[in-house]
């Protein structure tokens, strides 16, 4: 029987847990796994040790979890990653492209690392394991709620004895998983919603939520569903068109990202200065001038700007429940007996496997390594500096 260990999250403000009691019960159903949960691991997400024990888990100290578990589950990389013993399989959202030094460290330690953020999402077999989608969905939902809370007016049109209120005008920039959920949630709250994405194909997705589509002229036709980085001229044209459009809205939620590329700037200082006092901007994607992660600031002109790159963590029950199901699906599909299959021809496994047998094995990371440490760090910093500002600082401080 393989022991699966669940570690308490150590990243600042992180409230999710990698496996919920429901996940424990699902995992134990097949009889292949023993589950050992670090004491208090689920507490920030409102799952207490007793609930884990009732679901069939054992509770132990952090050291015991490290010592006794063949497989270790986390949401984000643990601060004490150096304590992971050799031979263990570490599974989480490890962001190896944002932090390749972590991958090297894990390889040197002889740890096998599997990162859910590298999953090939369009393969139907991989969809139950798609933690990026499950977490983006939660983040998009919370973005709309956060906006409604920060906004000084009603979202819906209300007809009362004291008169009629107009609905809030909400614009969502970037209509991937998080953006579409933000549109749908803001609409359920009664706002008048408008969406925009650089991909042509996203227009139909925006319309399917009942939102209007913001027209800015040309868009991209992409084969894989992912946006490409815009050239400087295109980006400048887009920013100028958005700078004209954004001030018409009471609330703007930004979620735009480019995989392997820099997050586009979509809300400029000029746009912020032209918005009405009382307007609210929620930045999930790293798209707003001057927005800082996990910070709520009010401009001199009275616009509230909230940097919110890790909103899934603020809805910890829903986010952990969905994440746990992703992890259970991954274990069932890729490591049915808790071990890596000896022939690793599985395309999903090949895509998520970062380190194995003392080597960094993921092709994208190996490509980056070829350029040497300086080039690699520069590339990766360029890619992620907007999105991962705070988490990078935390990682550097704690190692
Ligand atoms: P993401 O987080 O990478 O980016 C969010 C959105 O930002 C994307 O829609 C992207 O087009 C948009 N964007 C990027 N640059 C922009 C710019 N300059 N201006 C405006 N918008 C910009 O996206 P995601 O949520 O991970 O989804 C990416 C794609 O993957 C989508 O097509 C989505 O439907 C697809 N997807 C498919 C599956 C599946 O097949 N199961 C699962 C998840 C996502």
Key terms:
399 residues, 38% helix, disordered C terminus, binds nicotinamide-adenine-dinucleotide
Could you explain how this protein is built, in words?
With 399 residues, the protein is of the alpha/beta class. 38% of the residues lie in helices and 16% in strands. It contains 13 helices and 17 strands. The strands form three sheets. Strands 3-2-1-4-5-6-16-17 form an eight-stranded mixed sheet, sandwiched between helices. It is globular, with a radius of gyration of 22 Å. Residues 372-399 have low confidence and may be disordered. Residues 121-122, 127, 130, 132-133, 136, 173-179, 197-199, 202, 225-227, 230, 238, 255-259, 264, 266 line the site of nicotinamide-adenine-dinucleotide (NAD).
Write a compact overview of the structure shown.
By secondary structure, this protein is an alpha/beta fold.
Give me the Rg, rounded: 22 Å
How does the helix and strand content classify structurally? Answer: alpha/beta
Helix content: 25-40%
Give the strand order, joined by hyphens, for the main sheet: 3-2-1-4-5-6-16-17
Note poorly predicted spans.
372-399
The largest sheet, given as strand count, sense and whether it forms a barrel, is: 8 strands, mixed
**Count, helices:** 13
Number of strands: 17
Give the ordered list of helices and strands: EHEHEHEEHEHEEEHEHEHEHEEEHHEEHH
Q: How confident is the prediction overall: mean pLDDT? A: 90
Bound chemical compounds: nicotinamide-adenine-dinucleotide
Q: Terminal Cα separation, in Å?
A: 33 Å
Per DSSP, what share of the residues sits in E-state strands of 2 or more residues? 15-25%
Q: Name the shape in a single word.
A: globular
């Amino acid at each position: 029987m393989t022991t699966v260990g669940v570690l308490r999250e150590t990243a600042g403000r992180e409230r999710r847990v990698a496996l919920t009691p429901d996940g424990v019960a699902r995992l134990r159903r097949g009889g292949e796994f023993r589950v050992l949960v670090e004491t208090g691991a689920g507490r920030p997400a409102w799952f207490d040790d007793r609930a884990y024990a009732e679901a069939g888990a054992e509770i132990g100290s952090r050291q015991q979890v490290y010592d006794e578990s063949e497989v270790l589950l986390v949401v984000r990389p643990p601060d004490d990653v150096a304590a992971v013993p050799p031979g263990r399989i570490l599974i989480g959202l490890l962001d190896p492209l944002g932090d390749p030094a972590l991958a090297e460290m894990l390889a040197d330690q002889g740890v096998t690392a599997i990162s859910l953020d590298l999953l090939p999402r369009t393969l139907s077999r991989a969809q139950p394991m798609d933690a990026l989608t499950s977490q983006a969905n939660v983040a998009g939902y919370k973005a709309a709620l956060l906006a409604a809370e920060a906004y000084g007016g009603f979202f819906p049109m209300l007809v009362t004895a004291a008169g009629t209120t107009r609905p809030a005008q909400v614009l969502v920039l970037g209509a991937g998983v998080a953006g579409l959920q933000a549109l749908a949630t803001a609409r359920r709250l009664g706002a008048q919603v408008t969406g925009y994405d650089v991909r042509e194909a996203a227009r139909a997705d925006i319309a399917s939520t009942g939102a209007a589509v913001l027209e800015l002229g040309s868009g991209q036709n992409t084969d894989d569903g992912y946006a490409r980085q815009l050239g400087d001229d295109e980006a400048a044209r887009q920013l100028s068109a958005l700078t004209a459009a954004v001030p018409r809205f009471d609330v703007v939620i930004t979620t735009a990202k480019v995989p392997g590329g820099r997050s586009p700037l979509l809300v400029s200082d000029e746009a912020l200065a032209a918005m009405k006092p009382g307007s609210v901007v929620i930045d999930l994607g790293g798209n707003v001038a001057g927005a800082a992660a996990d910070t709520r600031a009010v401009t001199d002109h009275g616009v509230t700007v909230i940097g919110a790159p890790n909103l899934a963590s603020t809805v910890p029950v829903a986010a952990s429940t969905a994440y746990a199901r992703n992890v259970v699906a991954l274990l069932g599909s890729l490591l049915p007996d808790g071990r890596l299959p000896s022939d690793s021809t599985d395309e999903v496994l090949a895509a998520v496997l970062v380190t194995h047998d003392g080597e960094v094995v993921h092709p994208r990371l190996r490509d980056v390594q070829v350029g040497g440490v300086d080039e690699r760090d520069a590339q990766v910093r360029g890619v992620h500096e907007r999105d991962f500002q705070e988490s990078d600082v935390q990682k550097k401080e704690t190692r």
